[in-house]
Design a protein that fits this description.
This protein has 18 helices and 23 strands. The chain is elongated, with a radius of gyration of 30 Å. The protein is of the alpha/beta class and 518 residues long. 36% of the residues lie in helices and 20% in strands.
């Protein structure tokens, strides 16, 4: 147990620092400080010594250099049990520093604001702060490192209970938090600079920096613990920017499904409704108004929609809300709500109602998938139908109506778990086959669901997220009543598949792009 005699304070976030410094002064701890922090302490009657008085060097380069000096870092890094270290301190006139209280420039907060320039971002990269934090954390056996106002009360209590002393266990825990902070901080900077690149590169090392939004009641299952984090410094809030207006706390599975809903409704410019269950759409539609799009989407599979996530890309109106009230729904998300619609739905106290911002900023994003002992990383699947050079491979050209239906289907099938085969009209899904090990089984499932919903497949189009490996999938689609097919192509049996389309007088379009989703 080592008593603290000297502390260095240099904080950007000055919340609680005056009270904490007064506590240190009560224990007769000498306080060393910098610039704005020293000024604040002096204004509140707290005696402190300027770092520049100790180093003999002024703050310089617009504050870029304040504490980068042997008389500061030697005072932090010297091992108190090492007689040679202590002798060197004495020769150089250096007094040890036993506590370092630092928090860093808010780089992530600055760069997440719209319009932040690179020059402004660079000026908010803290250099001296992380250097002192790491030095103190490395030497935690002798130095306490304090990196957050949240820690002040706990440290005050322990010092009060132990006559100004912090235990070695506490110093070790503070060091862990300090290294966690510097790791996070470097990751935020890395993420920001990476998002400015036009091409994606994968470095030999990867830093992931996320900040916790909330603890969750449990994970995918009740026996699993879970929490929700946002990527620090990201230019895209995604679903982390969603505002909850009503209802129970979101669950792990709610958030997973919301990710699919938000991405899907943002795909369409027209009024759009999407219903998702277990990350798969069970209905999607567009129309001239929201109510019509909802009724079409719900008709696809009203059974699976039970307990689903309902997403809309227009303000939710009363007419649609009146229908939604009749259904058991976990979550509704929309860019806004008519007051009458909102008040009506609020009568369902557990229904979660969320508001989202459709005007998301674009950014280069990575997709991460954890595997045992490692991490798979890829760039996001951002290829949309408008980015493709569609190739008509059948003898028959698709009609304008069929082409519109094919484009709609391709936008939706991208979000269906593989193997994915869906049947659509120009403005709605009719049958969705998701997650089957066989593409034929996915097709059969989609047909079966449509029939159970009382929907006709005559005149629909079919979309497959990957190529048809055999002609049997096309034969089955033709038998169901489709008139056109959209698929990536690329099978060694493409000619056989195209021949099947021609035999059935189907129009077939190749996208050249696959949309596997696992």
């Amino acid at each position: 147990m080592k008593k603290i005699k000297r502390a260095l304070i240099s904080v950007y976030d000055k919340q609680g620092i005056v009270e904490f410094a007064k506590t240190l002064a009560q224990f007769n701890i000498e306080i060393v400080s910098t610039g704005g922090t020293a000024k604040l302490l002096a204004e509140n009657g707290i005696k402190c010594t300027l770092v520049s008085e100790i180093t003999g060097a002024p703050e310089m380069l617009d504050g870029r250099v304040k504490t980068l000096h042997p008389k500061i870092h030697g005072a932090i890094l010297a091992k108190r049990e090492n007689s040679d270290h202590l002798a060197q301190l004495k020769v150089n006139g250096i007094e040890p520093i036993d506590m370092v209280i630092i928090n860093l420039y808010p780089f992530g907060d600055v760069t997440s604001k719209s319009g932040t320039t690179l020059d402004v971002a660079l000026e908010n990269i803290d250099i001296g702060g992380p250097t002192m934090v790491r030095a103190a954390a490395k030497n935690f056996s002798d130095v306490a490192v304090v990196t957050s106002p949240v820690q002040y009360d706990l440290i005050t209590k322990e010092m009060t209970d132990n006559d100004g002393v912090l235990s070695s266990d506490t110093r070790k825990k503070l060091a862990l938090e300090a290294f966690r902070l510097t790791h996070y901080y470097d990751g935020v900077i890395t993420n920001y600079l990476q998002q400015l690149e036009t091409t994606q590169e994968y470095g030999d090392n990867m830093l992931l920096s996320f900040e916790k939004i909330q603890d969750l009641r449990y994970g995918e299952n009740p026996h699993q613990s879970a929490a929700f984090y946002r990527q620090a410094g990201s230019l895209n809030d995604g679903i982390t920017g969603i505002e909850q207006l009503h209802g129970k706390e979101l669950s792990f599975n709610n958030i997973m499904d919301l990710d699919a809903v938000v991405k899907m409704v943002n795909t369409f410019d027209q009024p759009c409704s999407v219903i998702v269950k277990h990350s798969n759409p069970c209905g999607a539609a567009i129309a001239e108004n929201l109510f019509d799009s909802f009724t079409k989407a719900f008709a696809t599979d009203s059974v699976s929609a039970f307990g689903g996530i309902f997403g809309f890309n227009r303000k939710l109106d009363l007419k649609t809300a009146e229908e939604l009230r009749k259904i058991f729904i976990e979550v509704i998300i929309a860019p806004d709500y008519d007051s009458e619609a909102f008040n009506l739905l609020c009568k369902k106290k557990n229904l979660r109602m969320l508001k989202m911002n459709l005007e998301q900023k674009t950014a280069t994003e990575l997709n991460y998938k954890r595997v045992a002992g490692g991490l798979l990383v890829q760039d996001a699947d951002t290829k949309g139908i408008d980015d493709l050079q569609l190739k008509i491979v059948s003898k028959r050209q698709p009609t304008d109506e069929e082409m519109e239906a094919l484009k709609f289907a391709w936008k939706v099938v991208k979000w269906v778990k593989s193997n994915a085969v869906i049947y659509c009209l120009q403005d709605r899904t009719v049958g969705i086959g998701a997650g089957q090990m066989s593409r034929v089984d996915s097709s059969m499932l989609a047909v079966d669901k449509a029939k159970r919903a009382g929907l006709s497949l005559d005149g629909t189009v079919v979309a497959s997220d990957a190529f048809f490996p055999f002609r049997d999938g096309v034969d089955a689609a033709a038998e169901a009543g489709v008139s056109a097919v959209i698929q990536p192509g690329g099978s060694v049996r493409d000619e056989e598949v195209i021949q099947a389309a021609n035999e059935h007088d189907l129009a077939m379009v190749f996208t050249g792009i696959r949309h596997f989703r696992h």
